[in-house]
Structure formats: C-alpha cells, structure tokens
Model the fold of this input.
Amino acid sequence: MARYKLVTFDVYAALFDLEGSLVPEVRAVLPPEVDPVAFFRLWRSKQLEFALISNSLGRGHLKFKYLTERALEYALKRHNLELPADTRAALVAAWNRLRPWPEAGEVLAGVKARGCLTALLSNGDEAMLRELAAALPVPVDHIFAADQAGFYKPHPAIYELPLKTLGLDRSEVLHVAGSASDVMGARSFGLPCAWSNRGRDYVLEPDLGPDFEFPDLTGVLSLL
Amino acid sequence: MARYKLVTFDVYAALFDLEGSLVPEVRAVLPPEVDPVAFFRLWRSKQLEFALISNSLGRGHLKFKYLTERALEYALKRHNLELPADTRAALVAAWNRLRPWPEAGEVLAGVKARGCLTALLSNGDEAMLRELAAALPVPVDHIFAADQAGFYKPHPAIYELPLKTLGLDRSEVLHVAGSASDVMGARSFGLPCAWSNRGRDYVLEPDLGPDFEFPDLTGVLSLL
Done:
C-alpha cells in the first residue's frame, strides 16, 4: 500500500528546466550586448514578485500570463529596449513549451508504477499547464493551477486544491517543491514536502524546511 | 488651506539612504573578497521577499526585525560565511541608525510649514521606527508600522492605519513612496501617491502608477 496517494509536482522549477528552455528564446530576440541569462532572471524575479504582490493587494486574481507579460515589459524597460508586440507574445507563449528535466519522465513513471496518482501544482494558469502537460513523456492525472485557487503560492489556497478535489488528507499528499518559497508554503499548509533543490538554495524560515531534500527529482522515488 | 492634512513617508527607501548607511556596516565585518553591495542587496531582497511570503502564508505577523535576522542568515549561507551572533546582532541593529537622505530634513520642515501633519509609514516594527524617528532632524507627528497593521506593504491594512487613527479620508493623505511596490500598494488602496524614484524604477502594473513622480524628495513640496 502506497504511503502517499498523490504526488504533486511544482512545475516551473521542479519538473521543467526554465532557464534551459527560455534563455535561448530570449537570446534569439535581444541585441547581442544584452546578457540573456541576467535578462531572463530579472524577468522571472519580477514575475514572481508580482505574484506575491497581487496576493497581498487582495484585488482579485491576476492571470499568470498577465504577470508574465507585465514582467517582460518591465525587464525591457530596465534595459531600455523595445520589442514588437508579436515578439513579446512569442516569448510569453514559450512558457507553454518548456523542456522537462531529463529525469522527469522516469520519475513520473516511477510514481505511477508505485500506485500513486500524479499532479502538477503550480502558479501557472490552467491553460498554460494543460499545454505543458500534453508534452510530458508520461501524462499526469491532475492539474492544480493558481487560477483555480485565486491565489499564488505560497498562499494556502493553492495547496488545498488537491485535498478539496480528491478528498484526501494532508498526510496522503507528497508535494515535490522546486523552490524555497514553495517548500515554505507546502510545509506551512501541512503537506509532507520533498525539495528538488538543484540550486542548493536555503529556506528563509528554518521551521518551514523540507521533510526531504534531493539534488534533483530522482530522490522522490526513494520515498514511495 | 492645505490640500492634504497628512503626508506619510516611506522609510527604508524614500526618507533614509539604506545602501549608503548599511553597505559600510556590511563591508566592515565581511571578508574583503565579498562584494558588500551585492551582499547587502541579497540581504535586502530576501528581507522583502520574506515580508511578502509572510503576508501570503497567513500565519500571523512576523516582526520585521525577525525577517531581517533570517534574511541576513540566508545571505551568509549563500556566501558560505559565518559571523558571530553579536556581529549579526550589530548588523541588524544598524537598521535603527540609518542616515536620512540629504534633503529629508528640509522636506519634513517644509511639509510642517505648509500646515500638514507628517508621519512615517513603513514595513519596520514600531520600535525600530521610533529609534529612527528620534534621530531625524525634524520630528514627525505619527508613526505607522507594519506590526500595528499585522501585514506588510503592499497589503491594504498598513495604508489604512493613518485613516483609522486620525479619522481622515483617503483624499486627505499624500503618501510619499520609495519603491515601485509601495506605489502600487498606496494606489491600489486609493491614496494619492508621490514617488521619490531615485533608482529610475518602473511599476509592474501600469494602472497602479504614481500620481506624481520625482527624482528625490524635494518635489513633494511643490504639491502642497
């Protein structure tokens, strides 16, 4: 009997290679003197900051695609650059065609083989996540998206989605986090949490550290 | 008759020179091979990120001093450094001895001379802000702190403090913001907002831009 009934995966860090997928897209459209890694990191950090700000403002949910568009425009302004509207749209659409980490398919298949359901649990919009899921080597059983919850991670509403949808207890769900704030959110909500910590990062709140920590996704299979 | 009855000032960017005050403190205690500006910016960005995360977690208010301590420990870990507890405590205490921007005294005096009340409105704890206020060249009339509101900017609860305390309408309060997220928070709540935008930054949400924007604090006097 499986210890967990469901394993939820963070998308933009844990399951997919964000920089490996998007830095080449950025490089292809920016002037050669702009560092595409630094540009992408600014874009990404402002997208995440805007998600947290929108949680705090309490004015209703803004779609992740919208935050992604605004954060791209911010990064362009900071670099004193302009791009045509269709080029900006293509960069935002590239978030729907990310490359999974090399071990992602094996890990998803292994989780299924051990009798657990699989799910994405992400700040992305449901429509963005459906496109990504269609391209995964192994299909997932469920998609839990921020626009279903009305809040972004690490707000508890998003970690509650699988419990409400599937009628599970917290102890029956293992969340595989991809970032320190995701770890803190899952642990604050009370989910068992494994951190695929590729960047050797640290949580800000020691009391909300992960239950398990691995350098990539493969360690997850040892928990099931 | 004054157009505004109260002018509230953001503290850690608008009224005080954070980097000019704290980078020398960091430089004095870190090994010479560590860039003190980069170290301080990581410390500051993680402090702010933690404030936003704590708003989203909804587990009750964490003091700003606590976030400052945890963010410092994070920055040390990322640099693979250790500092004695008393040195870390001295760095955190330095947040209570910041240098105001050169024009701060003149602007506070000018606001008073035009018949307006003045206040600090900040993510800092009340105790931290009281120490800073005692060292200002011109005393302020009120202190509005995040630990009074139970939330950090840009949550509406903190911008509501002066209205509840003084019985004012939104239109009677001018907020002087020091950062893009502070602008968005004040405007989302409905306060008239002037941005002392020393870093030539941009707001992420064009609909929540400032009513007035200046390269430093002196422009505020032209509004009164």
Chain A has two domains: 6-17+100-223, 18-96.
